[in-house]
Amino acid sequence: MTSKLFLALLLLPFSGLAQDDPAGVDMLDTAVVVVAPPTSVIAVDHKYDKGERIDLTWVPSIDDQLVEGKVLAYRIYRIVNDGGPQLVADVATGVGPYQYADEDLHRDSIYSYYVAAVSSNYEAASTRTAPMSPQREWMNLDRKWLFLIALIVGGSVLLFITAARRGTKLFVRKIAGLEAVDEAVGRATEMGRPILFVPGIRDMDDVQTLAALTILGRVSRVIADYDTRIFMPTSRSLVMTAGRETVKAAYQAAGRPDKYSDDMVTYYTDEQFGYVAAVDGVMVREKPATVFLLGAFFAESLILAETGNYIGAIQIGGTARPAQLPFFIAACDFTLIGEELFAASAYLSGEPMQLGSLKGQDVGKAIAMIAIIVGAVAITIGEAWDVEFMHDIVTWLSGVFSTR
Amino acid sequence: MKKSTLIVMAVVVVLFLLSWVLKASALQPEQGSYILRGFLVTFAAFLTLAVMSFLYQDNPFYKFAEHLFVGVSAAFWMCMGFWTTIVQNLIPRLSTSLADYFMVPQRPEGLNLFFYTPVILGILLLMRLSPRGGWISRWPLAFIVGTTAGLNFIRYLRSDFIKQISSTFVPLLGTQWEGIGPFLSNLDLSASGQLVLLLSNWVVFLGVFTGLIYFFFSKEHKGAFGVGSRVGIWILMITFGASFGYTVMGRISLLVGRITFLFGTWLELI
To answer: What is the ipTM of this complex?
Structure first.
């Protein structure tokens, strides 16, 4: 197969000479290798796109089916708005199904195609396809299941938010790390030392930063009540702005707006390790009694957590970055693992919006658990005892949970 | 400042100068500005040692390196933000004369007035500086947060939810199950054998399922659900342990890189 393809590609540049330059034919070949053209060339609009692609299929030349190597390739010609034919591609023979996708087209142009079978010195063209224009579809029905799943999860979130707003008490299990927040703030108050809150190194477009800021709201409120100091170094200007808003709102809610200062939330640098160097410096100089490491962390997680451990601070870490969680677990007193970070913000704030979102996600998890059990059992029985019905279930489930 | 501190600082300065002179003289004059290169290598070594000195305790050398790093990087990112985002990306889309002024090439697609949207949002964000109009800066923030949440919803739904579910449809008895008798009689302990495949499929299935139980917040973790949750957290911890070791090995390679610089490029001992 490989040698056939290689031969086809090798001879392809010369094959055009056969028709354009008869002298060239004499030099290359003594006899013309006549081949039959491909048949049933069909051009159809590509479904569910923006109207910029047409799919071509054809039945290969009979000579290609009977004699290996006689047809070297298929040439795709495109005719736009009754203009001259344009060569758009060469498709090698023997490489999968005979089809071609013509892309980057315009909806307002009319296209027709023909396909030519190419031998070493001859080209046999098929009939032209009917003129057509690519169509734009408004909805991609290939993703109907994705839409339905999004609808179920999103609908559940809305449903639970509405329920929470109406006063329905939504149960959320206890999260160990959160029980320690009040204790950690109280400890800092007793020791007369500040609290350091590090919101990670990502910007406001990261949900982990948003979750960290929600927790910051609750922590700041407790800090304001206890009249303790908080310091929050940031590595993004937008996070600094949002952090100041959050802390300020918490101090106002606690009835102590006079205690708030913009110096509580400062910006250092966007540079990852520059920021880490600065925060480490703050840790060893200010010696905070409590350190919160909540948000999106990368390679700096262990450096920060280890320095916090070194100064003897009680540390509450939390991130959804799987690669950084081991370091927080090793060096922090409490760790919010993955989604616990997002659950924590809902749990602490008690806001209907966040609680409803958390409960809605639990609906998604319940769907996932059921689907996993059904899928795993079906594929196990199907594979082990070759039960057709089980194969059908797996095929259907794979279609539903497809990422196409 | 203490006398001992001054002495230490003086010693470090003398060592720095000595290293600079020796390094510059060790470099070949034909290699260009060897005095400057000697300084750069010595300064890089000094900064490396200054940062490493933090392992002992906080000290003026670490503070110097820290402040230099923060200051230089903050300025660098400020310049990068201005020249790459505003000058190179925004201005050619908004104004031909401004693009000519900054000597940046025109965009092939021409001007695009749609890009006035980020300009307006940016100006609104700067309203934070105004004592009376500070609340306006919340609108662009809300825009950023809202669009991010919306855009990420489908992306995460596909990659973190749907993809994980379909990948957990694994045959729990392997792919060539013919019964317990043939399985035991043809027991193969190799990595590609049926036993290993069967075990790995069970780990995937149980790991995902019990992990989901652990992160299910609507039910108290008691009884069978509690057992599932505990299995889930054990699997998580084992995974974290493996990840910890793997990452620490990566960090060791970074340390080796620095040691190689100190003993190779700087001291030329290796």
So the answer is: 0.84
